Amino acid sequence: MDDIDCAAERIDAFNSLALQAVLARASGPASTGVCKACGSLIEQERLRANPNARHCRDCACEIEAESRRHNRCGPR
Questions:
Q1: How far apart are CA 74 and CA 47, in angstroms?
Q2: What sign results for the dihedral spanned by CA atoms 27, 32, 35, 36?
Q3: Residue 2: which pLDDT band, with cuts at 50, 70 and 90?
Q4: Strand partners, 34
Q5: Element (H, E) at 9
Q6: Is 60 exposed, middle or buried (0-12, 13-18, 19+ CB in 10 A)?
Q7: Residues 1, 7: Cα–Cα separation, whole Å
Q8: How would you write 57-73 as a 3-class SS string?
Q9: What is the spatial distance between Cα 4 and Cα 29, in angstroms, rounded to a whole number?
Q10: pLDDT (tens digit, 9 = 90+) per residue, 19-66?
Q11: For the stretch 28-57, what's the b/e string if a residue is b when 16 or more beta carbons lie within 10 angstroms of its beta carbon?
Q12: Which candidate, 72, 43, 68, places its Cα nearest to that of 55?
């Protein structure tokens, strides 16, 4: 087996695990309504739009901005 075949098998295995993780999250319990980052209540509008939300709007924005910064600049 050559390197390309090994890489393709690894990609298939990774994609399979990623899909299983997404499906497990989607079928998991709905949000508790409390932000995991700051402990405040998650807005009702947000929970209606996404019943599985784990963070309030402010924390979700901060997490997303940090993720963008990390992807753009690399880890610090």
A1: 32
A2: negative
A3: confident
A4: 41
A5: helix 3-26
A6: middle
A7: 10
A8: HHHHHHHHHHHHHHHHH
A9: 40
A10: 998 887 777 677 889 999 999 999 999 999 988 899 999 999 999 999
A11: eeebeeebeeeeeebeeebeeeeeebbbbe
A12: 43
User: Residue 49: what residue type?
Assistant: A
Structure tokens at 49: 């739009």
- The structure's pTM equals 0.58
Whether 17 shows a pLDDT value over 70: the answer reads yes
Q: How far is 45 from 35, CA to CA, in rounded Å?
A: 14
Residue 75: is it exposed, middle or buried by C-beta count within 10 angstroms (0-12/13-18/19+)? exposed
Chain position carrying tokens 């995991």: 36
Which two tokens mark 17?
């695990």
